[in-house]
Amino acid sequence: MILSTPPSTAVAALSPWFVAPALLALVAYALAAPRGLRWAERWALPVAWAAHGVALLAHLFGIGLPGTGARFGFAPALSATAWLVLSVHAVESRFVPLDGVRRWLAALGGLSLLLALLFPGEGTLHPSSPWAPLHWLAGLASYGLFGAAVLHATLLDRSERAMRQRQGPPSVGGLPLLTLEKLTFRFVGAGFVVLTLALVFGMGFTATWHWDHKTVFSLLGWVVFAALLAGRRAFGWRGRRATRWLYIGTGLLLLAYVGSRFVFEVLLHRSPPGG
Fold first, then answer.
1. What is the largest CA-CA distance in the chain?
2. How confident is the model over 62-119, as pLDDT tens digits?
3. How many CB atoms lie within 10 A of CB 140?
4. From CA 154, how far away is CA 219, in angstroms rounded?
């Protein structure tokens, strides 16, 4: 990845094609979050998801702004991850309804989109090879899948804790804990496959790939997820032991791109090496 413009000449203005749907999405997320607004429960979150997606596309492709190339950064990456988690939930809820996550998803989507408005990213990204877009897309997809796994794992931990304290049945919204656990690790497995593809595309086909903190954290995350899947298959890891590994691996992935870009963009105010 290459930043074609330095931070001093980075895109400062926000396109109205990004701002308008982003503000609509923020309002819809705000309506989806509170309890008791039954009239908003049906349409608020879908409207927020749709407007969020339009805002992301407008920003990433620089619609309404001069120049070419994808505009990216730590906050747009978080925003895209949140949108992908919402997309997974939208599909999953048609087959396996999960009650009680609407407020979490609304808060996640709204906060990530607000960060993208405040920190839209510096410069523009241009592919250094024909494989670079596949590397970027696979990386984002793995973030979304692991984000969905973390959401499920959080519900799993909360339900297990309530069960130990005898505060509720061993289920989430009528979904048995064992089924929820299987769903969680299906997302982990899918995320691991996509993350592997992202690393292969990056290491094997992207001209600007080099060893840095982003690469190290990505590989460490891959090792943690591989160990989690191996431990679950070989030793039957379950419960908090398994979810801790999931949280650690996801944290390492966040440090790999989002964390490193945050340091360079916000704290150091300069372009990261390699983009």
1. 59
2. 887 776 666 778 899 999 999 999 999 888 888 777 767 888 899 999 999 999 999 8
3. 20
4. 24
* 269 phi-psi bin (left φ>0, alpha ψ -120 to 50, beta other): left
- Check if the beta carbon of residue 112 is closer than 8 Å to that of residue 79: yes
- Residue the block writes with tokens 């702004």: 65
Give the residue carrying structure tokens 């001209």.
Answer: 207
CA distance 70 to 135: 14
**How many angstroms separate the CA atoms of 10 and 32, rounded?**
34
pTM for this prediction: 0.84
